[in-house]
Amino acid sequence: MSRPALSILDLAVVGRGSSPADALAASTRLAQEAERLGYHRLWVAEHHSMPGIASSAPAVLIAHLAAATTHLRLGSGGVMLPNHSPLVVAEQFGMLEALHPGRIDLGLGRAPGTDQVTAAALRRTTRLGDGNEFPELLGELLGYFNGTIPDDHPFHRIRATPGLGDQPAVWLLGSSDYSARLAGRLGLPFSFAHHFAAGGTDAAVAAYRDAFQPSDVLAEPYLMLGTSVLCAPTDEEARYLAGPSRLAIVRLRQGAPDVYPTPEEAAAHDFSPAEQAAVDGFARGHVVGSPDTVREGLDALVARTGADELMVTTMAHGVDDRLRSVRMVAEAMGVTPVAA
């Protein structure tokens, strides 16, 4: 069967016994290996006040990764637009596009990517919106890139430099059908967070395709699914290495996020029935196992959804385990390495 493009989402995991600096160095290694292996793109996520995730400033990390690679597409998965001034985002990503033309993606989300208190600190206000302001913010942002801010808008005289004329590829991200429908109406590519919202995948995919209207960007819908994948030589080893992701989500749901636990720490944890239920819901769409198991799982997902691209996120404690996993997934899915 014809397989979709394969890409990577990196959260710059800070494992027990390591530091944010170590995590960012690991992200650099991952980007360079992804480029060598033939992955299509690599995105970094925006999270705040999470000890186990170091990707709090996507634009800064993207700039570093772009300088450490030559042709790999790089982007945000995503920038949480309500956290930021659209002008600042336009200037940051306009600069990235000007520095690395044709290599930059701007994936945009409407969730805070953190808890409400941290969101208030980011936005300098306790009056947090419900996400319904997202289309207005998006329109302003796109206007800075393409010069379409209306004359009656209070910011119509502002010029984003860089920004105007240096527009990266814009994507909408979502974990429900809200952004799916908006992406469809605007004719933009859409990335769904199957890795943590698998229960809503089919509805969001259908909403995106139903709402799609051709645009200057796309003639047809383009769907990417974020997918949690951990590959190891055997199913048993892969499940063991995936244990920390289960414990990490329990701690996050309990309001006690921590650095990313070790497999030994996760194996020793006695999950309560409530914790196990939370884990089962979170891991519903995860693909964990040997190369054959992973290939079968990803092929089944593509057959069900018709995804044009899969964005693999690999949550493992050790960087060597993450690198081994992305190598094995690339081989299992027939990705062609780039010639040296």
UniProtKB/TrEMBL annotation:
Q: Please give the InterPro entries that the UniProt record associates with this protein.
A: Bact_Lucif_Oxidored, CmoO-like, Luciferase-like_dom, Luciferase-like_sf
GO MF, any single term: oxidoreductase activity, acting on paired donors, with incorporation or reduction of molecular oxygen
Q: Where is the Luciferase-like domain?
A: 13-308
Q: Which GO terms describe its cellular component?
A: cytosol
**One Pfam family here:** Bac_luciferase
Entry's NCBIfam families?
A: oxido_grp_1
- In which family does this protein belong, per the annotation? To bacterial alkanal monooxygenase alpha and beta chains.
The record's PANTHER family line, in alphabetical order, gives: LUCIFERASE-LIKE MONOOXYGENASE
Q: What is this protein called?
A: LLM class flavin-dependent oxidoreductase
Origin species, per record, is Iamia majanohamensis
